[in-house]
Structures are given as structure tokens and as C-alpha cells.
Amino acid sequence: MAPPVRIASTVAATAIAVSVLVYYRFQSRRRVLSRHAQDLSVLRQKLPHDLSEWRAPGDTPECEAIWASLDPVLQDHGLEQWTHYDDQVLVSPQISYPLASGFAYALPNRGVDNGGGPGTARQLTWFQYINPVLRMARTKDGHDVAIRVIIVNNDGHEQLKILKKVAAGPSSLLSNNHTLPMLRVFEYEDITFGIFPRTAGCMYEAYGYWPKNSVGDVLDMILQALEGLAFLHDVGIAHRDADKSNFLVQWHPESLRTMSFPSELPMEARVSSHLKSIQGCHTVRSN
Questions:
Q1: Cβ 238 vs Cβ 286: under 8 Å
Q2: Cα(149)–Cα(17) distance, rounded to whole angstroms?
Q3: What range(s) does the Protein kinase domain occupy (predicted)?
Q4: H or E element: which one contains 221?
Q5: Residue 151 bridge partners (DSSP)
Q6: Which of 164, 138, 133, 131 shows the shortest CA–CA distance to 149?
Q7: Region class of 156: left (phi > 0), else alpha (psi between -120 and 50), else beta
Q8: pLDDT digits (tens, 9 = 90+) for 42-55
Q9: Which residues partner with 45 through β-bridges?
Q10: Residues 237, 196: contact at Cβ < 8 Å?
Q11: How much is the pLDDT for 278?
Q12: Maximum Cα–Cα distance for the chain, whole Å?
């Protein structure tokens, strides 16, 4: 057995070695984090300086370069961007299906794949954007979300204030509030991003396009849109862009294709003897 002094010396030497190793690893990690912060700081200088500048590129390589450069920022927040496919079309990671979120569905008669045609679940794996301030991403737990640039520098603070009032908090739980919920916000430098659920479609497609919606289907969408606008007016907010492309739907009812009535339609309103009842629910959301 070694003398006590030698044991104490051995223990002390081991402790010093461990301390040096821990200190080295801590310093190494701190240097990595410092380089990461520096890289992100340099990145900000390359990004648009206001919302108008962010919208300006449209569907161009410059627009894709902006979002591609933001990958490290989005990954830090658990978001994987959809891939740019062609023109203004984005596709989900590995063109895979998301988890159901309650905001995007396909009708059974359209099917899951069916050649990827309109209204199928496969169609939920791609998205065509109009505004470059909007991007699709997938969360770590498999849900698809829309990333919206809300604030850039001093531009957009009022919009965030409104969104916090109607798209988050207790008022977002009211049945006559058709605002798409804002799931969370995060910041990078002087830029604020909002995260929203990905929906299946919009009222722009409700008629004169691929969905086989009946007049009743379209009127139901319009009534819900008007109810949503009335809610905004009641709380002192004007939409100022109430275009049908800004009203979103979970799916298109397509009563002319399914030859059935939505279950929420009152019995006295079911005037056709050729249509049968079907279980379902359909909600219009304001973007």
C-alpha cells in the first residue's frame, strides 16, 4: 500500500488533469459558439433591411439565397426548411407526409396519393408561394408550419401587435375568430418571425378552379370569412386586404364531387334529394 502522501499526490494530479480537460472543452465550446454568433452577425448584413426589400426579389435566385442563408437560424429553432423545387414551388423534406395538425386534410374520394393530383394528401407535400416573406418548414416533431417575416428593422411592429391580440392568447379561442393562430414567434437580430400552421388551400381556388364546390360550399366559406371580418371590426381592427387569396381553408368540401352535404348544414337547407348526409367539418381561416 502506497504511503498516504503519495495517494494524496495521485488524487491531486488526477483532479488537476480533469480540471484542465473540462476547462479545455469549455473553452473550445465557447470558441465554437463565439464563431457561430459571429457568423450570424455577418449574415444579418446580407439580409433585407425592411419588408419591402424582402418582398422585392419575387421568385428569383436572390430570394432563394436569402432563405438559404437563414438555414442556421431556423435550425437553431428546430425548423427544417422545405426545398425550393421550381419557380415559386416548395416541396417538403424528402417529399414526405407531415403529421396531421387539424389544419390540412384531403377528402377520402381524392385519396392519399392518386398520382399527386389536386385535393390529394400528396398535394400537401408541396406549396406554391406568392409572397417571398413566407416560407414553409417542418418542425422536429413532424408538423408542417408557415414561417412569416413579421418585423424587419422598424417595419412591422404594428402588425405583430395585432397578431398577438387576435392570433394568440384567449381571444384566439373564440369560435367567431377565424384568424389563423400564431403558434410562436422568435427573433434574429432585428427580424421577428411568426410561426403558423400550414393549411390545405385558400378561397382563391373555391370556384373556377379544380375543386368541385357547390354554390352552398362557396356561400359557407363566404359567410365564415364575413364572420371573421366582423370579429376583427368588433375589436377595432381593419383587415385592409380582404382578398379571397387571404382566406384559408382546411379542405374544399366538394359537395358536387362527393354528392353529399357537410354535417353542419341544417336539415332544412338540404334541398336536393340526390345528396346524402356526410360527417364533416370545414372552417375558413383568415391569414
A1: no
A2: 49
A3: 107-287
A4: helix 215-234
A5: 192
A6: 133
A7: left
A8: 898 889 999 999 99
A9: none
A10: no
A11: 33
A12: 101
